[in-house]
Each structure stands twice: as C-alpha cells, then as structure tokens.
Amino acid sequence: VEVKIEVVIPEKERSKEEMSPNGKASPLIYKVNGTARHYHLEEHSIASNPYHNPKDVVEASVCHVKDLENGQMREVDLGCGKALLIKESGEFHAVGHKCPHYGAPLVKGVLSKGRVRCPWHGACFNIGTGDIEDFPGLDSLPRFQVKIEKEKVYIRASKQALQTQRRTKMMAKCISLSNYNLSSTNVLIIGAGAAGLVCAETLRQEGFSDRIVMCTMDRHLPYDRPKLKKWLFMQSMDSHPEQIALRPKEFFCTYDIEVLTEMQVAAVDVKSKIAVFKDGFKMEYNKLLIATGNTPKTLSCKGKEMENVFNIRTPEDANRVVKLATSKNVVIVGASFLGMEVAAYLAERAHSVSLVELEHVPFKRFFGERVGRAVMKMFENNRVKFYMQTEVSELREQEGKLKEVVLKSGKVLRADVCVVGVGAVPATGFLKQSGINIDSKGFIMVNKMMQTNIPGVFAAGDAVTFPLALRNNKKVNVPHWQMAHMHGRIAALNMLAHGTEISTVPYLWTAMFGKSIRYVGYGEGFDDVVIQGDLDELKFVAFYTKSDEVVAVASMNYDPIVSKVAEVLAAGRTIRKRDVDAVVFLSFRTGDMSWLTGKGT
C-alpha cells in the first residue's frame, strides 16, 4: 500500500471558487435599513488551483503505510517543508504541521475525534479540512490530499503551502461599497480586538457581502494584545505596532472591512438603531456587535496622574515603559497577570523591580496558594522584590517626574517608572441609558448565542457575562484571548440566523522567565488543589476541585496535559478527584489517549 499526499482545497471551498460570475446559486438575502440585499461569496478565485506552477510542487517518499497506527501523528519532511500525517479510524489525513497562531508543533498536541489541538494555547483544527474550530488564531491549516498506493507513503504538495503552514479561508467582498451612505452600515462592530475582528472575518467567510464597519478608540488596526506584554518587551526599543498586527492593512482593503480608528462611541440608541460618536458623528446600523473590552483601573492615591506612571494599554505605552525602565528603578503595583508578566520581562533590564500587592501570595485566587508561592519564589530568584499585603498611599515627584512610591506600610520605594496592573472594569459606561441589560458590575449580559436583550444587538469579549456550558450554564465573565475569538465567531453566525450556541472550554496561558503556565476550565470557587509533580522544580500539574469534581487544571512543563484535559471537558466528560492520579499516568507517562473517548479505564 502506498500513501500520497497532495494539497487540495476542501470541497466546500472549492465549490465556492468554481462559481461562475453568474453562478450565485440561491444567494441569501439580508435586509439593511429595510432594503433587501443579496450576499454571496467572492466571485474572484483565490488559489483555485494550488498547482498552477509545476515548479512549485514537491513529491517525496516519507514512510511505510504500516508505520502509523490508529490515533498516531507524525511529522514528515519533504525536503522543503514538513507536513503532519495523521491516521484515525483507519483513514489517513495530512495537514500543516505548525499551529498558525504561534507556530507550536502540532505533532506534540492532542488528536481526538477528528481534530488536533495545539499543545501550547489550545487552538483546534479539523484533520479532514484543516479548518480552525477553536481558538486562538485566525488562520486554518493547509490540507493535503492523501492517496494510498503500494506500500510506501508519498507526499505531493505545494512548496508555498509547506512554507507558509497556514491558510486563510475564502471570504466574500462587499458588492458595491461605493453605493453606501457613509452614515449607514449593515453591521457595526464597536471594538477592534479579537472578538470584533473574528466577527467581521466570520461574516465574510459565511458569504456576507454587505457593509461592515469596525470602530475603535485605538489609533491602530487590530493587534495581538497578549503580545503587547509578552512579546514587545523582548524586542528592540524601536518596535512598531505593525509587528503585532493581527492582519495587515491590505487584508482589510481586500475584504472590504472598514476600520474607523480613534473613534469613540458615546451612546447607542437601540430604538432608532443609531450609534452616536463622541465627536457628534452618527451611524445607522442594522446589526450591532459591542466588543469594547475593558478599561484598566487606576490608582486612587495622590500623584496618580504623574508622568512616568503607566497603565499599559497600547504599543506606545509598552515601548515607553521599556525605554524608561532600562537601568532604572521600577515599581509595579498589582500582582495581576499584567503586573507579573511585566515584572518578569523587566527584571533583566531594570536596575531594580519591586512589586506591590494587597494579597500575601501572587495569583492566590486564580492558581491557589501553593502554586502562587512557587511562582513567587521563581520571581525572587530573578531579583524581583515583593511587598505584600500593602497598598500605595502616595506617589512622590521631583521636578515633575516620579521619584518615590510610598506604601501604607510606611516603606518608601525608589521609583523612576511605575506600572499599574490592579485589574480592569468593563468599558460599558456609554450603554447605561441604552436599554441594554448590564449587571451590577457593568458587564453586558448575553445568552448562548451572544445576543443581548435587544434584538439585533450582540456583545462579545471581556465586557460580557455569558452561560458557560462547562459550569451548567452559569453566567460568567471569562476575559481570555481565546474566548474573545469564539465569542466573535458565535455572534457573527447568529447575526446570520444560524442558531449556533457557544460551548467552548476556557483556555489561557501566561509566560514568565521563559516558562509557561497553561490553564483550562473555570476554577472560580475551587475548594481544593491536588498537585502532581514538583512545585520546587516548576514541573507540575494542579487540579482545581469543587467538591468531588475537577473544574480546572493548570500545568508548567507538563505539556500537553492541559490540552488533553481540554478535550475531555470539551467532550462533556467529568474528571473526578479520585481520577487525578490515573489522568496524569495515562495521559502523560503512557501517552494513552483512550480515556478521552471513554474506552479506557
């Protein structure tokens, strides 16, 4: 038997490409401002044939067909690039071998029920089509066709596909943008983060070809916010926002997704379907997505408005902090994810880094006291000084610039730069008189389809509470990058009346001193933590339990166990406290994945 792999376009997308200019078979109809409009997929072919150029094709023998058992994956090298060969349920599949998000090797991920999950950040890809099914990330994997001939495995693929290791799904374009009234749009998206961008892209992927407008207070096109604190600090002091852009400017032009920068919405009139901007401009909409995220909390003490005191919100903020902190004294207020990550990245650059926190252990509420102490020790070993169970009472200046941070404990810290990371509040103040339901904390309440109480108005991202299937549909706020992506997709699908409900499992990560903590589930209210591994060596798995049920899992240097647990939870299965030892043994030490499908013990 011989296996051959070649790049092909999934049947669903090929049919879209092969439509003739007049072949808009039964286009869907959407109403904007009472006017019926048609929308359909872009008529212009995008890579309709991956083998235009024979010189771009490579073919190589990579293994014997019997080298793979069911449930196994293997990276295969074609000389000019690699592919991921998969065998499941007796069938062979082949896709790109790197996660398009941050380039994780998918061969080290988790294969389960027709999809492969990234070992680093939990993105999921269909092994038959390569399509992204869970986030983070925007692109899908290239899919390679598998053929079986004789007893060898051959791969035939496009060199370009092997080198890029990503595929942007087919999208529609706006039919006649020039005919639109500038003050009217079909879909208005307030906010240009992950939720807003994924919503716009999903609409285009589903064939929507009416006007889409995104507006943002930011001066930049949508960018990767996690990289703002996890990546920019590791670059030169001349880093530019374009380096962390989620999509280049040309992408928005190509697919007619309009982005209005430095535009703040001041009010929404849901009866008239009009958004009123701060400068007085008004825009009428048919469907609305509110994805405004959150606003960082500020200090309430004297001197809080002083120069060199930062809430890191933009690329410019990050670059200024790096420049000002080099070889200087830095005080970070708040042992939040932001505060701890900034402390880790500045520890090698600053003369000193001091961290002030109200709790007695970092991350206590999220990771528990034992994990928090282990992380704290790692920071202390890297010259970060902690001042716990105290707050800032005053910021003192000299010649208009920060000089000292005074703590309520009486301690005075030398400080040239102060970074504030004491949490955030939802950016929903402009909705107070709108009639959109908002809870006591300012979060927009939505249902499983990301719909608010107002027809045609959706909300997504950090500013919402939604029913989490994992916790019996309890209304929760999950301010994670991955979840914002999924919110945007679900909102878009339901703008098009698909009736799709959200069912994803929360997945997050944080990186400090070159080590990553991965976390899956929703652990709020946990009453016990079961640790497997060695906290002192920073190689462990922490199981967070509520009564007898495991509600969340965190790990460090134990990949891909968190991704494996994510698949268990996504399948609707429950892990009991008594099962923890078996979970670690079966998933990590033996590599046995049968317990994912309930076939093992």
Structural account:
There is one protein chain. It is built from twelve helices and 39 strands. The protein has four domains: 108 residues, Rieske [2Fe-2S] iron-sulphur domain (Rieske Iron-sulfur Protein); 209 residues, FAD/NAD(P)-binding domain; 114 residues, FAD/NAD(P)-binding domain; 84 residues, FAD/NAD-linked reductase, C-terminal dimerisation domain (Enolase-like, domain 1, 2-Layer Sandwich), CATH 3.30.390.30. The strands form ten sheets. It has a seven-stranded mixed β-sheet with strand order 4-13-1-12-7-6-5. A five-stranded parallel β-sheet has the order 16-15-14-20-32. Strands 22-29-23-24-25 form a five-stranded parallel β-sheet. The chain starts with a strand and ends in a 12-residue tail after the last helix. Helix content is 18%, strand content 31%. It is α/β, with parallel strands linked by helices and 601 residues long.
